[in-house]
Amino acid sequence: MIAQQIINAVSLGGVYALLALGLAIVFSIVGLINFAHGELMTLSGYALLAALVFGLPFPAAVLVAVSCGALAAVAMERVAFRPMRGASVTSLLLTSFAVSSLLKVVFQNGISARPQAVAMPDWMTGAFSFGDFTIGVGPSISIVVSALALIALELFLRRSVTGTAMRAAAEDFNVVRLMGIPASRIIATAFLLSGLLAGLAAMLWVAQRASVDPLMGFTPVLKAFIAAVVGGLGSLPGAVAGGFLLGIIEVLLQATLPAAVAPYRDAIVLSGVIAVLLVRPQGLIPAVRVQRS
Amino acid sequence: MPKLYRLHRAALYAAVFGTAVAVVSTVSAEEIVIGAATAQTGGLAPYDQPALAGLRMALDELNAKGGLGGKYTAKLIIKDTRSDTAQTATVAQELIDAGAKIMITPCDADPSISAGQLTQPLGIPTLTLCGSAPVLTAAVGDVMFGTYPADNVQATAVADFAIAEGKKKVYLLTSPDSTYTANLPEYFGTVFEKKGGAIAGRGTYTMGQPDFSAEITNIKNLAEQPDLIMTAAYEPDFPAFIQQLRGAGVTIPVYGADAIGTPTIKGLGKLVDGVVYTAAGYAEPGSKLEAFDAAFTKYAGHAPESTYEVNGYEIGLILDHAVKTAGSDDPKAIRDAIAGIKDFEGIAGKITYAGTDRMPLRPVALMRYEGGESKHIQTMIPAAADVPAP
What DSSP character marks residue B389? Predict the structure, then answer.
């Protein structure tokens, strides 16, 4: 039972880590907490549904959906955030809320207020058994995909020129520009990566929830924000650590709290977050240079 | 900036008062304003909108025949509550100011109660579209009416069926986040225990919770395995729960109630095979409900998604009957007329308010998903003595 709950925790933590990382990448470069990140997930979810309705095989549909998330993120930057470049943190934050609300209304009125069922392939609801120990295919995929995505991102940031430039930009954007690297390219890449991560997270999210609805982005972006803050805003390793920590605490509480206290689970989780921040105000793994604008 | 702000505010006031005046001035003696404070956006919209479509159809038909009671043209004013309890009170007040003599409220207890707080002192009869929590009428007072089979009645019907099937042990999954999700499984548990069943365990979830894995692991590790899981979870929580439950290799049947009788749940296909739920009626060949479904399809351009449409339509019929009985458009007289309704021939079955606490006595249809289709099991009115107190 304990082993089972550990797998549950790692699986949920992995999804939170992907989400938090998506927020952190953009924040580290432009100082924007993109609250419309959840709507990128929703968009990917609808893209998956549409691709399946049009008869694409499942792997192709997933590919289409993830690319849609990535492209939508780049488009979002171009349309909504580029005109706001250099604006205050508050203005950027409000812009992202506006984009988020706008997209939610578009989904509700343009598609349907009702959640749409996404029938996952049968093998997704299967489970492996080892004696009396079973592990579902869904959680296994979650863990593998999260791990692969984290490794791939790490390689990109360490080994490629653009990746190196992005890490440098997170520390001092002006110096990177003086080196002759165009700001727009760095920022667009940051959004592209965050959209990719949102798309991947959306696939894992939808696989576990079997439906897409206009408001589905709200909870994940909130969790991602909490994870990113606990981990250290703007720090990529911090976002991953924060995501796993949040997932583990949530599963642990859900598994162990007596029924009478269970409704206070979220309150207890958030109290834990406050406790962490009291001890480490910059988060678990603080960013190299704290962003101020 | 401040000056501009004042200008804006002035313009806003002008607009608001202008509209109010315009609305009031268009209410003629032969009109009766029905205010609909319902969700067009947010989590309740998928429930409110079908019900409202049914009501609209009824009012259109009645108006073509001279109006409610053959005399008063029904004027429906619809305002969006955004599925928010506080916003429901705001728009209810706006509707009252616009002259509403009848109020229609969302498919949930909490916003209906918030609107009821405003209509109760004025004596305006208030009907919830498909809010089914039996506590909601007592929480407001004598103007508040339910229209859909109440949660305790639905739960009794499902429990009777589970006992008849030979089920012995149930696991109750509740969420304290709404009256519906918190109480309906407990009503089931009460009846189930009274009739010889046992409760093997209880679990809770938060609405919108992403992950049910810990809860499911707890179910798998119960010393006594239940032969049934009862929940009032609905979309998007219900699909998530059952996807993760089946994904973890648990095959225990899951039963629910009316809120999972939707195209979304049906669209889950094989995943929901064997899931039992309830409806306000079943369209048997040759029944009035079958004729309604055909007429609705013609009216709306698509088939009804559930029995919320017919329930909304029946609200129109109830209002027509009440205005006829009252012989006037006086809200208090209309309220008394609704409260006195006995064996009224609706579309899905007979409806009775007389002798109840304003939650109607009406049949419950038990349904089951099989191979992506909804199959009718039986239609029943549970014995009043079996139904647990709210």
Answer: P
CB within 8 Å: B214 and A8: yes
Pick the CATH number of A2-279 from 1.10.3470, 3.30.450, 2.40.128, 3.40.91: 1.10.3470
- Type of residue numbered A245: L
Distance from CA of B93 to the nearest CA of A (A): 24
**Number of CB pairs, chain A paired with chain B, less than 8 A apart:** 138
Residues of A in contact with B106 (CB under 8 A): none
CATH superfamily of the domain spanning B151-279+365-380? Response regulator (3.40.50.2300)
**A 176-215 near B (Cβ less than 8 A):** 205, 207-211, 213, 215
Please state the ipTM of this predicted complex. Answer: 0.87
* CB count in 10 Å sphere of residue A248: 18
- For residue A164, the distance in angstroms to the closest alpha carbon of chain B comes to 35
Q: Smallest Cβ distance to A209: which of B202, B239, B249?
A: B239
How far is the alpha carbon of B151 from chain A, nearest alpha carbon, in Å? Answer: 22
CB B187 within 8 A of CB B388: yes
Q: What DSSP state is assigned to residue A136?
A: E
Which 25-84 residues of chain A touch chain B by CB within 8 A?
Answer: none
Task: With CA atoms as reference, report the closest residue to B242 among A125, A58, A215.
Answer: A125
Contact B243 A254 (CB under 8 A): no
Tell me how far apart the alpha carbons of residues B15 and B368 are, in angstroms, rounded to a whole number: 51
Give the nearest partner residue to B46 out of A113, A247, A252, using CB atoms: A113
**What residues does CATH 3.40.50.2300 cover in chain B?**
2-149+286-359, 151-279+365-380
What are the sequence ranges of the domains in chain A?
2-279
Is the CATH number of domain B2-149+286-359 3.30.1330.40? no
CB B221 within 8 A of CB A1: yes
Over its length of 390 residues, how does chain B's per-residue pLDDT go in tens digits?
A: 444 444 455 455 545 444 444 444 444 558 999 999 999 888 899 899 999 999 999 999 999 999 999 999 999 999 999 999 999 999 999 999 999 999 999 999 999 999 999 999 999 999 999 999 999 999 999 999 999 999 999 999 999 999 999 999 999 999 998 899 999 999 999 999 999 999 999 999 988 888 898 889 889 889 899 999 999 999 899 999 999 999 888 999 999 999 999 999 999 999 999 999 999 999 999 999 999 999 999 999 999 999 999 999 999 999 999 999 999 999 999 999 999 999 999 999 999 999 899 999 999 999 999 998 999 999 999 988 999 988
CB spacing of B217 vs A122 below 8 angstroms: no
CB A118 within 8 A of CB B236: no
Strand B73-80 vs strand B31-38: parallel, antiparallel, or unpaired?
parallel
